[in-house]
Amino acid sequence: MPEIDIVLVAPLYEGNVGFAARVMKNFGFTRMVLVDPCPLGEEAKGRASHAQDVLGNAEICTIEDVFARSSIVVATTGQVSKSVCTPMRMPFYSPRELRERIGTAEGRVSILFGRENWGLNNEEVKRSDIICTIPTSEIYPIMNLSHAVGIVCYELANLPSAQYRLASPYELGHLYRHIDRFLDSVHHPAFKRESTMIMIRRILGRACLTTRETSTIHGLLRRTEWHVDPDALDREKEAQRRHKNQHCELEDNSNSDVDNSSISPR
Predict the structure, then answer these.
(1) CA angle (101, 105, 109) in 5-degree steps
(2) What would the CATH number be for the domain defined by 3-165?
(3) Does the predicted TM-score (pTM) go above 0.85?
């Protein structure tokens, strides 16, 4: 099963943090992460009840840390797009559907829960891989923070053993940068770039890519680039040759240092 982090982004009320810790432990989750939290005191401890370990071990970090180390980032939101033409919050999945997406993968999955007053901001949603929303009544759709955490944890409890490992955050970041450069090479319109990259992140995010799959996509992009710009193949071969030579020089210097260190002084 994936390593699931429950990430509370800038929670405003310590009672909600305590309740969230309690409901996490109810369903077997212990990895609480806090981004820019409010001060936590006796109220948070009281609301956590027998989940003092979850609350006490909560990690405080930045949102950049969360994105940098996560194979998949899930943004939870009560506001979703009404049309596929606005990809910021589309497509979206219920917590039960989210289980189907990530249930058999191995890797770090961070689930973001936003501020009590206005949720996650557009930048946090835009950078996420999967959008999750709880199907609530239109009469009163916005839930309490800890209640939302509880429903998601309930649906994700007791996930099966992992069947494959997800691509690492570094591998995925490298792939997205390659796709962005590829769009430059085919003269993709600049005014469409942001929405296009959001859609690509949504497509590949819900695919839960493996390392081999990211490598295959790189290969397809490179072959296409060689046809668009035939000189690109020569430049890549030259870059690989220089890299190989630099690697050999480093090895030679390392071996020389070892040889010299073995000479006893007279």
Answers:
(1) 80
(2) 3.40.1280.10
(3) no
